[in-house]
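Q:
Got a chain?
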Amino acid sequence: MAAIAEKPGDEPWQDNLNEHLICPDCKEDPPHLVEEYSSGDMVCADCGLVLGARIIDTHSEWRTFSNDDQNNDDPSRVGDGPNLLLNGDQLQTTISFGDGGKTARDLNRAQNKTTQDKTNKTLMAAYKQIGTICDNMHLESKVNQHAKYLFKIVHDNGSFRGKQTENLIAGIIFISCRQFKVGRTFREIATVTRVSKKEIGRVFKHLERFFEGHNAKLDVAADTSHTGATSAAELSNRYCSRLALGNDVRMISEKLAEKVDSVGALDGRSPLSTAAACIYFACHLLNSSRSAKDIGIIVGVSDGTIRTAYKYLLEQKDKLVEAGWLVDKEGNVRGNVDNLPKP
C-alpha cells in the first residue's frame, strides 16, 4: 500500500503527556482544586467533588507544633552527615543532660570518658583554632577547609609528632593561602597566631618538603604545586584596596609589579618592598599622591625602604611605564611621568 502523504505544514502526531485534571461537574478551566493533606484527597473547591484519593504527600514526614519549638528542637529524624575530617564511623549515640538533672549529667560524663576518641578531640581543638585564625584574617571558607584538610594529613602521618600545634597551624595556614593564591606574609600570620616569623619559616620549610611527597593524595581544587613565594602583584592588589585607592592605581601598580620582574629593577628585594614601591610609583604617576609613610604603615615596611626601592624604579621608568597607562579609554590624560617626584 502506498503511504499516505502528509500535507505540507502539518506537524507529526505526538502523544500529549500533560495531565490536565478538570472537575467533571464544574468543568472550570483552570480548575480550582485543593489537596487535603490530612485525608490524602484531591477535592474541587467549588462543588466538593473528590477527584482523587490516597494522594501521596511529598512534604516532610514530621509535623511541627508550637509547643515543641520552645527548646529549638530539630524534628529531623537523622543526624548530621559524617565529617570526613574526623576519624571513625561517628555513629555513636550521645546522652543529653539538658533537663535530666544530676543522673543524666553523670551518665553523659561516663559516656564521654568511654566513647570519646582522643584523636578526634585533638583534631576538633585544632580545627577550632584554624577557623578562628582564618576568620581573624578574613580568609575565604575554601582556604579554611583546605587548611583543616592539610592538618589532618600531617596529624595522621605522625611525622611532626612533638611539634607545637600552634606552630604547625601557622605553617599550614600559610601553605593553604599560597596554594589558593591568596597572598599572606609571614608577618601577617605571625601577628594573628603569636608565632614568630622565624619559627613559621622553619615549619613552612619542613611542611613544604613533607607535602612534596603527598601531592598525588591532595585531591582538592587548590593548586598543590603552587607553594612559591607570594608575588608583589598579588600583594599590591590587596594593599591598594586597604589604602582605598582607585581602580586605575590598583591596575597600574599590579602591572608595574609584573614588569619589574622582567626588567630586573628590584632584584633581591622582598615582595613587600617591591609592592610598596610600585604603589608609591603608581600613585604619583596618576597624581593620586600617598606618602611613603602612609603606604609603609599598611604594607609593614619603613618609608626609607620604599624610597630606596622607588629610586631604582625611577631610573628604569622609560622601560617600565607604558603609554597606555597615561590615558584612559576615552583618550583623556590621567597621568604624567613628570608627576614622579625625585628621590
Notes: Residues 7 and 13 are 13 Å apart (CA to CA). DSSP finds twelve helices and three strands in the chain. The radius of gyration is 33 Å.
